[in-house]
Amino acid sequence: MALKEKIVQGAICSCMFGKTTDRLKVLTHNKYYLNDHQGKSKLAATHKDIGTTFEKNSFGNCSKMNNNPCTASVTSWSNYYEKVLYDPPKGYILTEDSKATCPIGGKDCISILRSGQTAEPSKQNFNNADEELLQHILPVVNMKNFEKKPQNKSEI
Predict the structure, then answer these.
(1) Any bridge partners for residue 33, and if so which?
(2) Which of 81, 83, 95, 130 could cross-link with 4 by S-S, CB 3.0 to 4.6 Å?
(3) How many Cβ atoms are within 10 Å of 47's Cβ, its own excluded?
(4) Distance CA 42, CA 112 (A)
(5) How many CB atoms lie within 10 A of CB 36?
(6) How far apart are CA 97 and CA 94, in angstroms?
(7) Of 126, 73, 89, 91, which is closest to residue 6 (Cα–Cα)?
(8) What is the rounded distance in angstroms from the CA atom of residue 122 to the CA atom of residue 31?
(9) For the residues 89-93, what does the mean pLDDT come to?
(10) What is the mean pLDDT of residues 129-133?
(11) Cα–Cα dist 115/74, whole Å
(12) Is residue 62 within 8 Å of 69, Cβ to Cβ?
């Protein structure tokens, strides 16, 4: 789990029998947020997020249904992380390796392409950064002066 990303609402998923992607919706709770400073959009996804839990509930045309429109429905998740339990909904956190089962496509036919999380560097990231390495990557930027400090009280 050390290097696995946790899945949040908005994660991009695909089905091996579909033609397009769809975004995951978390419908089981409104309490646990990850990588979301404002606590409004990145709900943590768990193995309890089953049923019609996608924005469009479709992965386009389904090759298992003679290329008729897909009606995505999750019956179960596999490869979730059993050391993190969110209660409610008594669900284990999904990771980038988690896969979903659809009654049409079968076991593990739906996979996660992107976790839904975004990188947002904080001040602490800059404080902990290796200055020598940053000099090689960004030679024209002095990271010590990166954060603008107010000159007077009117700028605060």
Answers:
(1) 43
(2) 95
(3) 23
(4) 16
(5) 18
(6) 8
(7) 91
(8) 23
(9) 94
(10) 79
(11) 17
(12) yes
Residues 6+ apart with CB under 8 A from 90: 48
Transcribe 71-138 into DSSP letters.
Answer: ---B-EEES-EEEEEETTTTEEEPBTT-EEEETTTEEEEEEEEE-S------HHHHHHS-HHHHHHH-
CA distance 22 to 48: 18
- How far does CA 64 lie from the centroid of its chain? 27
> What residues does 85 pair with on adjacent strands?
92
Q: State the CB neighbour count (10 A cutoff) for residue 19.
A: 14
Q: What pLDDT does residue 66 have? A: 94
Using alpha carbons, select from 116, 113, 108 the residue that is nearest to residue 79.
108
Report DSSP letters for 9-49, one per residue: TT-EEEETT-SSEEEB---S-SS-BSS-TTSSS-BBPBTT-
Whether the CB-CB separation of 23 and 8 falls below 8 Å is answered with no
- Residues making up the chain, counted from first to last: 156
Tokens 């002095």 sit at which residue? 142
Residue 151 has what pLDDT?
58
pLDDT digits (tens, 9 = 90+) for 20-29: 999 999 999 9
